[in-house]
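pinned: reference chain
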Amino acid sequence: MKPPRVFVTLKIPTEDLSPLEGLAEIVMSPYDWQVMPRDEIVGLLDDCAGLISQGELRVDDEILDAAPNLKIVANAAMGIDNLDLKSLTRRGIWATNTPAAFVESTADLTLGLILSTVRRICEGDRFVRRGDWEANGFQPVRWEGRLLGGKTLGMVGYGKIAKAVEKRAQAFGLRVIHCRTRPDDHPNCRSFEELLAESDIVGLFVPHSPTTHCLINERTLSMMKPGAVLVNVARGKVVAESALVEALRSGHLGGAGLDVFEAEPRVHPDLTTMENVTLTPHLGGSTREDRRGGRMEAAENVARVLRGELPLTPVNQPD
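pinned: its C-alpha cells
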C-alpha cells in the first residue's frame, strides 16, 4: 500500500519534516525562493492527504475542491487568516497552526524595528551607501535620535509575543504598558485610548479580525502623542495605511517600523519614500531556529492526523 502524500508549498529542508519520515511521501515545491504559483499547486493536490504551508497559501474552496482526499491543512505559522475554517470544518478537514513557534524571533525583530526607527539606523545606512556622508562630511546634529530609556512602550495586545517584547524592552529602560481585550488588574494595564495617549512607542500585537480591522486609523492615530512611533509586527490590515501616511507626512507621528502591510506584498508607495519609516518584508518569524521549530510542529500535527490521532494545535473541530 502506497504511503499517503503530503504537499509542502515551499522548498524547505527535509529534516524539518522528520515527524513524517517513514509515514508519508513528501511532495514539495521545486522553487528555491519564490512562492509556488497557485495554479501549479492546484494541479498537485488530487491525491494528497496533508498540506503544509507557512501561511502564504489561501486555502479556500478552490484549493479544497482540488484535494478530495485531504485530511489536514497545517500552517507552520501563528496566523490562520489564510484558512477558510468554515469550509475546512464542513468538509471534515483539520486545520492547525503553530501558536508559539515564532515568539522569540518576532520579539527580537520588534526591538530591531524600534531601534532602527528611533535611532535612524536604516536612514543612516542609506545615507552612507549613497555616498552622502563622504560628500557632506560629519553632521552630528543631523543624526540625533532619541534614547529608549525612560520612554513608554504601549503594547496593543498582551499575548506571548508582547510579553517577550516586554522583557527585552525593559532591558533598554523602557517603561511598558499594555491593553488587551479583557482588561486585567495589572498596574500597567490601560484602556486602548489611555495607552495611545500615554505611549511614546505603540506596538501592535493583535490578530486580524473584524474587531481589529483598521484599528489604527485617522481617529486613533490622532490620539497618539505628537512625535510617537508606531510599530506593527501583527497583521497589515490592523492599520489603515493611507491614514498612517498622512499622520507621518503631517509630522504628527515621528516614525514607523512596519513588518506587515495592508495589501502585502504591495506597500503604499509613499511609505517607501519616507526616511523615518523602517520597512521589512514580513520576516518576523524568519530565523532558522524558529522556522525549523514551526515546520517540525506542523509536520507533527500532520503525522498525528495520518495516524488517526488528534493534532497538537487544532484551530477547528471538523464535522
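why pinned: The chain has a mean pLDDT of 96. The two ends are 28 Å apart (CA to CA).
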